[in-house]
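Below is a filled-in request sheet from our internal design queue. Each sheet records the structural input a requester submitted and the sequence that came back. We keep these sheets so that new team members can see what a complete request looks like end to end.

REQUESTER: design group, bay 2
PRIORITY: normal
MODE: inverse folding
CHAIN LENGTH: 398
BACKBONE (tokenized):
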């Protein structure tokens, strides 16, 4: 059966128009100077049915031909020691690793450093942004979340899922993290193969997958949107929380995630260089996504309740207070319409904490130098990650 041509099917829907004319979409346009339209829609639409075939073939040749722990050990050897043309390994392994071991001509080490430093100096605001804007805001896009639902990610628990995201983000955003065979490079390659493994498993075992509407599982266009969350949406959240950043830092964050996306197998055409491009790309993608559904609400509430389930904090009143603070930040950072669709509880005095945090940030960023903020932020990230790895018992990629 021939597939119909993808259209910007929700461009006249209230959730799309309200977001881009009144909500955070409008703020993103003002923030970025974007000129949004549908003139390039067809250029991007084909990526909804495009996947990382190179990664998929490695999974077929390695993971599907031997025991899982043996396959993982073999991949780990390739990641840490490299692959050459003369090695006696499957052609798919040569193709993927020789490509990712060759740095692209556009890679700028100075911009990578600027991007890493912005991530580090953002401290706890970075973690608030990732959780209460980027991650939970992404749950509003119903089709984007279908791979999480069909692979039963909810059964894994929000503590483990959050730990995995934090582990990846921290290890990808430190100094020299993305050097070949370094920790960030390792996480990117392993994440790429996890995506391929999940995609192939979905296609093999889940008969109800609706490719027409949902696209291919973990398709390239959805991957673009996810990584725009780590750059554009992340920056916008930091700004909302009272942070400022230089032009170099701003370009650096996009460059860092462009390179991570390259390592993950996302086509370079989909990886924006700046906030203007990112907003224009994001505008097109949101036009094919319906608003929250019941699965979205389940994911959002699983994340909200993570604070109650997480044993990092010893006492119940501490956990309840942390959940309350995350709810406050979610209402502050996201559109109220999105919060209502996700059934985020409407708590009292919800603006008090984020507005106080914003004021403290403005003062803190004035009193302390950039280097001190980078060192302090990095230390906070590593402490939080250590706590999560302790309660989930094991590093997420071993």
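RETURNED SEQUENCE:
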């Amino acid at each position: 059966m021939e597939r119909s041509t993808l259209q910007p099917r929700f461009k006249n829907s209230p959730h799309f128009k309200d977001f881009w004319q009144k909500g955070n979409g409008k703020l993103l346009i003002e923030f970025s100077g974007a000129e949004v339209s549908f003139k390039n829609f067809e250029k991007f639409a084909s990526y909804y049915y495009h996947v990382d075939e190179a990664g998929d073939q490695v999974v077929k040749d390695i993971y599907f031909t031997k025991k899982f722990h043996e396959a993982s050990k073999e991949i780990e050897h390739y990641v840490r020691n490299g692959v050459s043309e003369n090695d006696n390994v499957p052609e798919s392994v040569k193709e993927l690793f020789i490509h990712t071991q060759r740095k692209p001509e556009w890679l700028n080490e100075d911009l990578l450093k600027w991007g890493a430093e912005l991530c580090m100096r953002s401290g706890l605001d970075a973690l608030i942004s990732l959780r209460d804007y980027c991650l939970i805001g992404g749950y509003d896009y119903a089709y984007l979340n279908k791979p999480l639902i069909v692979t039963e990610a909810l059964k894994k628990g929000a503590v483990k899922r959050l730990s995995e995201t934090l582990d990846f983000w921290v290890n990808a955003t430190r100094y020299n993290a993305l050097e070949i065979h370094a920790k960030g490079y390792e996480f990117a390659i392993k994440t790429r193969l996890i995506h391929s493994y999940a995609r192939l498993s979905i296609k093999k075992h889940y008969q109800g997958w609706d490719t027409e509407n949902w696209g291919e599982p973990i398709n390239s266009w959805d991957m673009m949107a996810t990584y725009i969350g780590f750059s554009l949406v992340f920056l916008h959240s930091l700004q909302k929380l009272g942070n400022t950043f230089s032009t170099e830092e701003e370009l650096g964050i996009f460059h860092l995630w462009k390179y991570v996306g390259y390592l993950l197998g996302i086509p370079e055409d989909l990886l924006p260089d700046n906030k203007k491009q990112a907003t224009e790309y994001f505008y097109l993608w949101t036009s094919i996504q319906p608003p929250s559904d019941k699965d979205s609400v389940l994911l959002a509430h699983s994340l909200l309740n993570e604070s109650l389930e997480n044993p990092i904090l010893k006492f119940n009143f501490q956990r309840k207070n942390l959940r309350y603070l995350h709810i406050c930040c979610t209402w502050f950072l996201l559109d109220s319409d999105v919060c209502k669709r996700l059934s985020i509880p409407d708590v009292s005095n919800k603006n008090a904490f984020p507005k106080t945090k914003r004021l403290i940030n403005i003062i803190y960023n004035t009193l302390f130098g950039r280097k001190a903020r980078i060192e302090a932020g990095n230390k906070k990230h590593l402490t939080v990650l250590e706590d999560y790895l302790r309660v989930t018992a094991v590093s997420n990629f071993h």
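SHEET NOTES:
- Residues 26-51+109-178+204-392 form one domain.
- The radius of gyration is 21 Å.
FILED BY: M.R.
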